[in-house]
């Protein structure tokens, strides 16, 4: 008895075998052409993703112990070279930094940082070099940090005042929550000019600390989580992990918040006119965006991305400090 769908199945299997063979052949040719470092043999389609567990840095460390300080992996469609020694890091980050400086266009840069408008995700070129110069000389310069030093001192003293009653009563205090609020208040006053989160913020614009904390933790997670669509592009439309949906939701939440902040700052600029003096990083960004001498104009999305990245960097620094201090 002849099966009606047998020819179609045979064609499908033959096509699949052809594609697998083509991928394996291409990988071997690349290995011979570029002298790729040693590493585990990749599977078709997924490459070495099957070897990466829930803690990728632990998985890569275990693999490097087996294949050496310079090894090759394949994440889906893309070859990856991993350096895990001091010499490899110096070779990549210092000796040949220009060759390795660029970053791939990944979904998190597109959906959470205004289509690669922020310095952390934009491509190397005139725009990136201009942003880096502005960050070093204007936004996070030593002078700017000195001007905002009193903010950090005031917020730390306010936290200690809040903690003082607990020392006399012996009540247990979750120090992490207080440190988080100090961080959020410092960010809000340094970058945005006043408190926009929790107590001290106006009722029209206040964000709940729990909500803002979730937004910060979500953007950290989504900018570091391996996204299948980045590694296997033809699967990106499926969004199998749901990350793109989460990125779009988070982007809308941040955009509403940043739009409100920019609107308030622009109103003050219009009211003060020529007497306007920048008071915070948002004021500086808006002033820089109007500078006609810039090599590459900074768009509205560029300003929003810079505000977001300012928050991102300051929070990241605080997390590093907490980690180093064992908190």
Automatic annotation (TrEMBL):
It comes from Triticum turgidum subsp. durum. It holds the Pfam family p450. This is Cytochrome P450. GO terms for molecular function: heme binding; iron ion binding; monooxygenase activity; oxidoreductase activity, acting on paired donors, with incorporation or reduction of molecular oxygen. Keywords: Heme, Iron, Membrane, Metal-binding, Oxidoreductase, Transmembrane, Transmembrane helix. Belongs to the cytochrome P450 family. It comes from the Eukaryota. InterPro entries: Cyt_P450 (IPR001128), Cyt_P450_E_grp-I (IPR002401), Cyt_P450_sf (IPR036396). The chain crosses the membrane at residues 6-25.
